[in-house]
Amino acid sequence: MAVEAGVRRLPGDSVVATAPMIRVNQAGEYGAARIYAGQLAVMGGRGRVAGEIAHMAAQEERHLKAFDKLMIERGVRPTVFAPIWHIAGYALGAATALMGPRAAMAATVAVETVIDAHYGEQADALAGGADPELAALVDDFRADEVAHRDTAAAHSGEDSFPVMQAAIRAGCKVAIAVAKRI
Length: 182
Hints:
Blueprint: H1 18-43, H2 47-74, H3 82-99, H4 101-126, H5 132-156, H6 162-181
């Protein structure tokens, strides 16, 4: 577990660095909301897949609002890369939707696979009771992300568009590493 730089601690205080967790989670939820916005802009409200995406988008908005609130309450600065996530997320969503519903859902499988692992790591770090509020959010939102992945896999096939999925997973991992720090 990492210790937040420059933070004075008393004996018994938590040594889990929660500010980077909150920052990266807010950035990720923002990026996910933008991906779904791009997909829905291309697909419109037509079809069963668009309905599933609209449902997932609503859940991501709930996640984003919760992390926005937590950032304000705790004075956590956002990532400086938010403008990039704004454009890149929307572009990824629009591009995959232009490829068709299966590609849009394959993108969700790729993103949510990484997010499940990411939230799992955070859940493990928070398991000792370091931050019960953040732990509860991570557990709640992780369940939604797993459901998104499973829904998307049912529509696209777990292994469809393997090269695209690999690229998206790699991009997500880089985004997570960057947003933790910058």
